[in-house]
């Protein structure tokens, strides 16, 4: 059944008027629209404004919202036509929310509109602000050119080069828009971040590519276990002490033949007239005898006069103390001459590539000059291949030519070829074509008003949506074959990508922000009241919710299980916290729930802790979280100068939290929102501020019963969850809107109504499956198209 039909039927039931209004808001479906769902004509809409809406505003709003003294600075007398309303769409969207939840006009106003008046006005606003004719060509919107955020940067570097570190951890935090940190409009590029990009590019190139210079060979220490002693030698972790004549022999195994340098860090205690003498031999052949004049507390570094050419295999480096001396009658600090060796190390093979080069080096350096291959040829080949991957699209010779010239100039200045490529990589990694997702460069001329984005752009949208990283070779190949416009191909790719380990990024970044899990890091419940709470428990709480989300995603379960699932995931530590002593070990396991107490996301400790205050529960926060994340009807911001709950409840300090909230609702301007939020939050009062089940709070027995504005009553958290489950259509649309926002990197606009209708209708008819939701998003117009002429504004 289509959502519009469901909503229309709900609208006809007088007992469910509040459900109707909520459903209308969620689905942007016009309850009182034409039979075919098309928006009203402009002429008809203007007539309704003059006959219904303007009189409503005059009668119920202008007493408070007129002239220079208008409440909250909101003067409404200037709105005299439909066009004047639409021109201020964002402002009126906020006003309409107030009308919808009946906080405007306030309940203490002298005259209040009837239900019929309110419903008719809301229907008109729904049409005027959101009405779109879905039978014609739809505006797919435009996305501001998007900078890679920190997570995307780290993941892209990982997949591009295989370098195992996270350079973006030192970048400034990304701004958030519409609840997510991948929104193009807020991802600016401040000067500090550009400096960080330059530093990161240099560090990445040096880690990824072996520079092939003497300094690029790391010193390899001979480990303590590879030393043997002869004579008066003591071996410790900090080195070896020669207390008399003796020899220290270190075993070395070389994987490659070539030239090697050796160095010894050593010091001595002085006695007599000559310094300690240290003899160094390699495989029995004398390399050099050193005079060690440095004190043991300030040791010196002793290097062989020249590199030694050695075959691969096993070798022995021996260090001997030749001139032990002891004078019991000498000065106190010059009676005993001893030698102390702190470290023995070698490096090489110098002048040739080591056998254990990082995989990133082989991935980038696919050509080396010599055997008929010039520096220019190899540089162009390497840079073209790397830039194609880094820019996530084919590149032209003109684009790579300046970078190739940079590499050649570096080599001509005396640097190695590898050092030249390092500089070339740095140039690519600070290019806007790497740092930003720029679209529209590959499209041929088009005469249509809206354009389907290019194949490689679809590949990038897919990969950054589901992996927060660059496309893999499969996506690149499909783009080259021109197959990413095909719905069946996209459906197959969605399932493949969701099953891939890289989809863990979707759990961390989408679920982490949708459910506010990232905020857990900043929360610290009162340690005096909640001694059991610690950093390990906090991490396990977050992991439970992530494992739960990941299971629904990878097993392609119904998204309704986010609300009503009778299972969760625990390890032993978290299970003990929940009162379950059957789970053992640190691994998270799927666990069946006692559905008389817990079900779905809302009763998980992470969510319950997030929606609490440090010292107590917060029904208001919990109700607000449910309205935002489950019902998709976030309440407006509270009016200014409203006192906090504690201040409002000061007159009755021994009251229960329920009684204190009742006092708070008596404050002007508070009742409308709290009438909706408070019952939702109070329904979960059986859970304390860190998510433990309880029957009492102090001496007061917990009362988790309540009644919603719709008239639906409940006696326990699970009964309330059952009521919320009935609102699954609204939840599905809310989830679709959140996920579409994350996928396209912009806020959902009124003209996205048709796409959201289609996404929600199609995936709900396919069993509410997770992959069906994702597939509908990636095959939607906002994902596959953009406004004509919007080459990433």
Automatic annotation (TrEMBL):
Membrane spanning residue stretches: none
Amino-acid biosynthesis as UniProt keyword: no
This protein's UniProt keywords: Heme, Iron, Metal-binding
Pfam families: CBM60, PSCyt1, PSCyt3, PSD2, PSD3, PSD4, PSD5
Domain Cytochrome c positions: 40-129
UniProt KW Heme keyword: yes
Name listed for the protein in its UniProt record: Cytochrome c domain-containing protein
Organism: Gimesia maris
Lineage: Bacteria, Pseudomonadati, Planctomycetota, Planctomycetia, Planctomycetales
